[in-house]
Amino acid sequence: MSEPLSLLLSVVIFPSGLFVLALGLALKGVDRRVAARLQRRVGPPLLQPAIDLVKLAQKRTFVPDVACRPVFLAAPLVGVVAMLLAAALVPIPGVYEPDPVLGDLLVLFYLLAVPGVVLMIAGSASGSPFGAVGFSREMMLMLGYEIPIVLVIVAVALRTGQGQGAVITFSLGEIVQYQRTHGAFLFDPIMWPTLLAFSAFLPANLGIIPFDMPEAETEVLEGPLLEYSGPTLGLFRMMSAVRTVVVLALGICLFFPNAPAGIAGLAVWAVKLLVLATAGVTVLRVSVGRKRIDRAFIYFFRWPLAFAVVGLATVVIV
Amino acid sequence: MGLLSRISSRSPWLYRINAGSCNGCDVELATTALIPRFDVERLGCQYCGSPRHADIVLITGPLTVRVKDKVLRLFEEIPDPKVTVAVGICPISGGVFRGSYSICGPVSKYIPIDVDVPGCPPRPQAIIEGIAKAIEVWKERL
Amino acid sequence: MGYLKVLLQNLLAGPATEPFPFGEALTPKGLRGRVQYDPHTCVGCRTCELSCAGGAIRIEMKPEALEFTLWHDTCAFCGLCAFYCPTDAIRLSDDWHLSHTDDRKFEMIEKGRIPAIHCAACGEECYATQPAADLFDHPPSREELERLRGYCPRCRRKLAAEGAQP
């Protein structure tokens, strides 16, 4: 198959595009159902997020008079496209290795920052004061969690590079390959501080409790999403679903990608996603309360930053 | 009413408007969603924070003079198709405040109401029954 | 970490959700629901109208009958009418399935009617209400009360005082 066509298919159908969208919606459905069972409720059917999207597609999009119309309508589109591209960049160990021409870990890091920026821009473009509050909260949150994730990425890249003789390598394929031969970073004590820092970054980037204050329903009336309705809101939900899969898959790729090849590898990857989603997202979401934005900001400059710095220092020294 | 309408009717989003209520009915509305005993998420509903996301509007409270303009303006922001449910006796007729100087009369004088749920406050099960009726009405309008 | 134990217990215990609306809902015995009015037992004192919190009860004393109307969409289901009614003519059942579409708003009505009669003794116009139990100096039997139904209030007092012998 010619290269541009295979690239296009990898973005549109598998592993990005339809596949990651279906997977993301399924994960969200499982998340809502499990959260309900953890609270002794019955919960919605598993297909509920997909049904929500179908319903949203049928409603109208309102654009407020004070909004900046092109930015208001383009923001969710930019977010979804960025996330679909990011999903094509994350390797599925044993099944799919991304074409190096698409990008590497650094490109993925930039793409992961796009949903946050899109939320911010959507909030300010909508012209509502609640959107402005959501904008400022998302900005503070990003300032908090971007530094630890940079240090985590550098630490993992350094470890992989050192183990292979080069100084540093940002290629996700090489990171997966290194862990196959030398054992996963999950079981490597030197990488445990880095792992802890990543686990602090995970809920903040995904925008779940305790770090969902930019989109808080009860406090800022859903912040940046307040003025969105209909298909544009559906695009935001799609972006959130794909983002969940991308960040969880990145976590698997950075710390525990060992898997057999072929269909078994795909099944193992799906099981890992499910376990990580249930433990890291759902259980966390129903157990704790929402942090206040200033407390969250201070929190990121304490333990997550400490763990990230210690992790990087350990990798450099050892 | 095609396949798309039938699918979409299983995801009605609820939005509460307090038009000067004493909060009794609002507390009952909170319980139908949040506590495990009366879980309203089974029907696919969820409470949304923004009027723009709403499908079923739940109005409580007699329309007091002070809040009337704001409620009418808020009601216009909610996109069609929508279904309005009057929860409690206050929005239906003024309730125990009927005839008072500070209320503008039944809400149906200003806003078209589709389903009424009498009670002061109505039982959570009665509210769920009203929401189920509202979903039926909404299905016709999709 | 205690909440993790709670979550595990919740998972094992299963949902605590009532099956309504896909099944029956629990209705406690004393639930205050739809109002029921029995004109046969009503004495026409209008205490229910006086004590109604929502102003839902309207009693009209028309020439042909005493008409009782209660509108459920203003009834607060407080139960004061049933509490103060001396003969339990007005009761609150436990039927809470009252939600309706708005076009049926004015059908949620409980009506009752006590016909007007002419007193069997003096011919005065009065209503055929249940006679009050305190007309007698002893707890009256059903038959003693029913015997006085066709009379006006003044004649009822006279007949009760005279012993109401057949």
Keywords for this structure?
heterotrimer, A: 318 residues, mainly alpha, 13 helices, B: 142 residues, alpha/beta, Rossmann fold, five-stranded parallel sheet, globular
Short overview:
Chain A is an all-alpha fold and 318 residues long. In chain A, 70% of the residues lie in helices and 0% in strands. Chain C folds into two domains: 30-116, Alpha-Beta Plaits (2-Layer Sandwich), CATH 3.30.70; 119-166, no CATH class.
Write the topology of this structure.
The complex is a heterotrimer of chains A (318), B (142) and C (166).
Chain A: H1 3-12, H2 18-38, H3 48-57, H4 69-89, H5 105-125, H6 129-163, H7 172-182, H8 192-206, H9 217-220, H10 231-255, H11 262-287, H12 293-300, H13 303-317
Helix pairs in contact in A: 2-10, 2-11, 3-10, 4-5, 4-10, 5-6, 6-7, 6-8, 6-12, 6-13, 8-10, 8-13, 10-11
Chain B: H1 3-8, E1 13-18, H2 24-34, E2 46-47, E3 56-60, H3 68-77, E4 83-87, H4 89-93, E5 115-117, H5 124-141
Chain C: H1 2-13, E1 35-37, H2 47-51, E2 57-61, E3 65-71, H3 80-84, E4 90-92, E5 100-101, E6 109-118, E7 125-127, H4 142-147, H5 153-161
Antiparallel strand pairs in C: 1-4, 2-3, 3-6, 6-7
